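Input sequence (136 aa), recorded before submission:
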Amino acid sequence: MNLLSNNLLRYLTESEKLLVLSKPILYNDLINKEYTKYYNNNLIDLDYIIGLFEGNGNINVYLTKNTTNSLRIKMYFNISQDKSILEEIQQYFNCGNIYNINNIYRYDVKSIMDIKNKIILKLINYDIELNIKLYK
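Predicted structure, token format:
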């Protein structure tokens, strides 16, 4: 079985004997050596990001009262994944930071304006479950 996505062909079975990323790699070489992952920045798209978000992401909303008893809202958007993929997501949205917490990489956006204007506006057109968690 092979997948073709944006001119990138990936062979998924041993019988194909070849995996094509940015350059051909023989299957036997692939299983006997460790390779750097090859990514083309043009390949990441919103469909891919949404898949990652649905599996490993969420939006957290925190409501707290400050000293004057007025309501304060904090919002966080995050996805956990490989660092190189998170760097591409960070470039795609042009906001947020990447953190390494106990060897787990997480892309976080903490600015409510960035979450609203750069992320939710793009996600809202898709039929997805946003995984929004409300904390009081």
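Checked by second reader. Confidence is low (pLDDT under 50) at residues 1-12, 16-20.
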